[in-house]
Each structure stands twice: as C-alpha cells, then as structure tokens.
C-alpha cells in the first residue's frame, strides 16, 4: 500500500501517483495564472485549493489521470464554456454549481456548493440537469482517479464485478478488510480504493448499481479473490 495522507497540496498528489507509477514523471502542462484568474472572475465562487493546484499543474493538458473520464477539464474548454454563457446571458450549468469539465458523451463534471464553508461535492451533469454524485469532494475524486490510472492497466486485465444494489460498497469494504485489504483515506459513499500486499480494487457506487474492479499481481490470485467476492458479497462477474 502506498502511504499517503489527506492534503490540499498538489505536490502531495503528484508524489503519490508517481510512486504508484514506479517513479515515472507525469507528463503535464499547467494553466497560466492569467487563465486561472479569468476563470475565477467568471465562476464567482471560491474554488477548492487542490483544484486550483490541479489547474496550475494540469490545466492545459493531462493525459493520464483523466479525473473527468471523457469530459474536457482543460482550461481552454472551461473558459470557452463560461465566456459563451456571458455572451448568451443564459446559464447552462446547474444552480450553485461550477463546471470543472465541459460536457462530452458522459456529460460534464460540476462542483455543487451547499451551505457556507462546506466543501462542494462533484456530480455528473448535462447542462443544468444534475445526475449522479460521484465524489464527496474534488480531493477524493482526484486521488481515486490517480489510483485507478496506475492500478488498473490498459488494456484491462482486471476482473469486473457488479450488482444492482445501493448498499454494496460498505459490505465490499468490510469483506475486503477480512481478506487483508486496507482502505484509503479518499474513500466515500460514492467510491473506494483498497489494497493488500499483492492485490487491490476500485469500487464505484451510485443510486442504481455497484461496480468493483479487482486486480492482483498474479492472475491466479485475482481469480481466487474474484470467486470469494462473488460468493460473499453476491456480485456477478462481467470481466476476465
């Protein structure tokens, strides 16, 4: 398990994922301070410190972590989105929201602000239409995506396990703990990562379904773990 602690310092995140990658440096290009300041003027809300750090390090180009999946988190796309709203005079983002990844096939990604001094959650959305919550905070989402980028290889070799229950995440983590899996601090009700000495998994939970991506250093160990999760947590296998 790679040691890490909750932090709003983007350098701590970069250190974490570079250790996950075995020491390889992340290829990236940051937004300029002028671009970030213009974005702040347009959104008119305080942005999470770690997200500002993300913009400074990855705001123009980031090809590995892909925290927004196929949505577009680059600063140029975000500025075009917000400048277009100013021109049209008609908002196309959710109320109390700041879009941090412009819409693509899987929708956009938006921070939703609640009460004062509460950290915004992250949701999927299609213009003003809010879909599933995907993380309790940008911090949790970024670290989970960083873990996934280097623990779930492409092309995939991991097992995919799923069911249609809303309460599976807690059960999967509890059973995983009995098998030696340690949870990471960036877990929440919408997603989780855990790792043992020779295996790891990433989970996603929404209002309709649960999905686990399970892998290990050896295919035999992965398959043995898969069998245990299928039997004890009542999951169905849809992967290798």
Automatic annotation (TrEMBL):
<protein>
    <recommendedName>
        <fullName>SMI1/KNR4 family protein</fullName>
    </recommendedName>
</protein>
<dbReference type="InterPro" id="IPR037883">
    <property type="entry name" value="Knr4/Smi1-like_sf"/>
</dbReference>
